[in-house]
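HUMAN: Mind sharing a backbone?

ASSISTANT:
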Amino acid sequence: MPSPTDLPPPPIELLDLATGYQRARTLFSLVELAVPTMLADGPLSREAIAQRLGVHPLAADRFLNACVALGLLVRDGVAFGNAPVAATFLVQGAPTYLGDQVLLHARTTYGLWSDLTTTLRSWRPGATDHAVPAEEDQGADSLRGQHNLARLVGHALGRAYDFSRHRALLDLGGGTGAMALSVCALHPSLTATVFDLPAVLDAAREYIRDEAMGDRVAVAAGNFKSDPLPGGYDVALLANLLSVSSEETNRALLRRLYEQLPPGGAVIASGWILDDGRTSPTIPVLFCLQDISWNAPDVERSAGTYLRWLRDAGFVDLEHRPLCEPSSMIVGRKPA
């Protein structure tokens, strides 16, 4: 043990971890106060922002400068403006607006994680395999909040994978249809069916109607764990899906897909997949604990695990490749 005259400095890495909540809470308040939207037309002074927000100028000063320190805002003299990330993703009404996703974390994540120690001791894989997913996690309102982020990931998927070789996509657990809409927008000859629980498909119908894609993107209601799947597809998408079911259910699903796909058909599993060391990417590693906190049937698995499940189901030409950080995708084909 070091002597009192030879003590090390405080560990900044532990202090950074311990203040993670304060960083996130600053982001949440920035979105709740709609500051990026306020600054969309240009920078404003601290006093102008304080007056519009109804807060004391000194409190505004500390809050705005905290946002500068976190890379959310920029300061030029006495004026504050949006940093590029806020201008692109936190201005209300923009097609890339992710404020709803941010606020979803604010509403659900922190209360959920407050009891992580107890949940770690009680969680068992597969115990909730046939339970209805928590409304706060997979309900219609939650999926609406995630829609724009899923659109961006779907756009990346449509560019990373050559869908031109296919004619019909089955988007399993497709929620609001965000991924299917993005992929079909990039591949005009492709049609898609979004398959999900009836309670969430009303939102999908609205987005499909709003984007005038009703002639190419359809919906079908059902539970992929127990109900027959729609037919006629030659590529199946499992986006952020495998961690909501047990290993047994996932393996059975992959066998069903293999049987139904035509020769040369493909299955794509995408999402926050772990590397084989299971310590990266950081966000998926942390969100395994989110799965446990939600009492989900499983956690996110490593790429090697998913590749093995696909191989065991009969798929060949397996590959794991990056999509958009922290997402990646795994592709398997049915032999021609």
